[in-house]
């Protein structure tokens, strides 16, 4: 039974990932959030999939390494064959449409620190379980805005977010070179623009004005496409920067 651990599943894309993966009765899905009991979406999934061997809800605050370590200890006896797929989805955006002169430096610092250190600690603490697995995959949700080649063509669109995601991309790209020698495939993925999510809605006015032809994906569509890419990833895809449509993006 392939195992998947997803962060940030209380709503939005993370919840969509969990719902998509649960459609396959062979999958074990570990859906994490800071407060799983407080997520109506996760509780609805638990009602739909009451079997404990199919869906595990686990409280996990990725901003705290102690919480990540506690999650690992909880899961070790439940995953004797390791963790096949680690999906880092939890993210933040504090100053989406502010110019560089308007951004609060404390918010900027907090966004960059979270975006880099949360996935860093997540992967480092879960590596022993990933190493034990057969599949050995780690996928990190990023954004097209983290592309150094593309982002300059989108001025004043989520400036802090762009810087933070570029840093995340570099983290995964650099680390993937080492991990591939252990048979671990780490990659990043841009899930597309999902206007119905909180983060996607923040830029809806910008999209309407500057890029009105941009496809507005449903959460279900984006989640299905991203999970298809994850499941089709091979060892040759180490360090890849995927677009939700299956194409590759420039770093």
Automatic annotation (TrEMBL):
Keywords: NADP, Oxidoreductase. InterPro entries: Fungal_SecMetab_SDRs (IPR051468), NAD(P)-bd_dom_sf (IPR036291), SDR_fam (IPR002347). The keyword Oxidoreductase applies. GO terms for molecular function: oxidoreductase activity. Gene3D superfamilies: NAD(P)-binding Rossmann-like Domain (3.40.50.720). Belongs to the short-chain dehydrogenases/reductases (SDR) family. PANTHER family: NADB-LER2, SHORT-CHAIN DEHYDROGENASE/REDUCTASE. This is Short-chain dehydrogenase.
